[in-house]
Design a protein that fits this description.
There is one protein chain. This protein has 344 residues and is of the alpha/beta class. It has 2 domains: 153 residues, 2-Layer Sandwich (Nucleotidyltransferase, domain 5); 169 residues, Nucleotidyltransferase, domain 5. The protein has 10 helices and 10 strands. A hairpin with a 4-residue loop joins strand 1 and strand 2. It binds 5'-O-[(R)-(carboxyoxy)(hydroxy)phosphoryl]adenosine and zinc ion (ZN). The site of zinc ion has 5 residues, from helix 4.
Length: 344
């Protein structure tokens, strides 16, 4: 079954073609990073308008490059949530209209299910069951995954998501949006010994996270070290970025280790934008290695938002016969555990 996938939940327009037997055929992405950069974060109305302008040309180019005709499509998968409602509606109405016109099914996909299944796009695919660390701009979750749609959330962030804390700390340090990659680059030059920030909630039992206290700690340090322009000098900023990154990476790795030990799951999957962080990838690989477990990630470009993960998740469900009614689904909030399991 050949499925077109469409992702428009936030600030990336992502499209892809996935075939149930042949795998990923093609994918394309338009990032709105530059559009939102001057505002220091995503402006929802601008995001929706840009998706509306970009989506059709992007799909046309995707099909042309792959030599696929509209008539070859057998299903359409679109992100139905969670995300920005206006942005979701653009992808949802496009997908629904195209599917209706072609007489093929369309299915609303859960964005975080896309992220957690993204490692299935790689050659070294994880096998079920596995433990998934989902770390994006909006979510931080540890999930026991026993199959497609069989998810048990073991823990999640009680306040800021991991990616959100990267973005907020980036702002404090005078860096642009999105903050994660810029913090990571600055941290490379930082001294890991100069500051030590707290590892939140690691002393408490369970798998929940909290990043707002760490954020406040960084804010206080920035204020203490600030020069006349309100910012610490370049070297100090790099040292702060490094200490912050170390604290987040350590906290995530400690909770993952605990969850692997307690569940006995053989594999750890890390996905979502923050899983593109190289220090996190290294640390999780070391930790899993010590426990004799496997770790799987999507390639870097499939950690952040993309159409390929939506095409894959939608194709698995469509090929198994799952169907939506004709409604356009746009669910800004949508619990992962409410998804129907896929019969295997
Ligand atoms: O999954 P994603 O693209 O979008 C959401 O679903 O939210 O994640 C975006 C988040 C942003 O907060 C961004 O700062 C963070 O992922 N991010 C990173 C890195 N690359 C992206 N955080 C840390 N290190 C990175 N290299
Ligand atoms: Zn995402």
């Amino acid at each position: 079954m050949l499925v077109l996938g469409i992702e428009t939940s936030c600030d990336e327009t992502g499209v892809a073609l996935y075939h149930s037997a042949r795998g990923l055929i093609a994918h394309r992405l338009h990032s709105q990073e530059k559009l939102h950069a001057e505002y220091g974060g995503v402006v929802p109305e601008l995001a929706s308008r840009d998706h509306a302008e970009r989506l059709l040309p992007l799909v046309r180019r995707l099909l042309a490059d792959a030599g696929v005709a509209l008539g070859d499509l057998e299903g359409i998968a679109y992100t139905a949530g969670p995300g920005l409602v206006g942005a979701l509606l653009v992808g949802g109405s496009f997908a629904r209209a195209l599917a209706f016109a072609r007489g093929i099914p369309a299915l609303g996909v859960h964005h975080m299910e896309g992220h957690l299944l993204a490692p299935l796009l790689e050659e070294e695919r994880p096998e079920f069951p596995f433990l998934a660390l989902l770390v994006s701009g909006g979510h931080t979750q540890l999930v026991e995954v026993s199959g497609v749609g069989r998810y048990r959330v073991l823990g999640e962030s009680l306040d800021d998501a991991a990616g959100e804390s990267f973005d907020k700390v980036a702002k404090m340090l005078g860096l642009g949006y999105p903050g994660g990659p810029q913090i990571a680059a600055l941290a490379e030059r930082g001294d890991p010994q100069r500051f030590r920030f707290p590892r939140p909630m690691v002393d408490r039992p369970g798998f929940d996270f909290s990043f707002s206290g760490l954020k406040t700690h960084v804010l206080n340090t920035v204020a203490e070290c600030a020069g006349p322009d309100g910012l610490p000098d370049e070297i100090t900023r790099a040292d702060i970025a490094r200490a912050f990154e170390e604290a987040v990476v350590d906290t995530l790795a400690i909770k993952c280790r605990r969850a692997l030990e307690e569940t006995g799951l053989p594999t750890l999957v890390a996905a979502g934008g923050v899983a593109a962080n190289r220090r996190l990838r290294r640390r999780l690989a070391e930790m899993a290695g010590e426990l004799g477990r496997r770790v799987c990630y999507p390639r870097l470009e499939f950690c952040t938002d993309n159409g390929a993960m939506i095409a894959l998740a939608g194709c698995l469900r469509l090929a198994a016969g799952q169907r939506d009614d004709l409604q356009i689904r746009a669910l800004p909030r949508w619990p992962l555990e409410s998804l129907p399991p896929l019969e295997t």
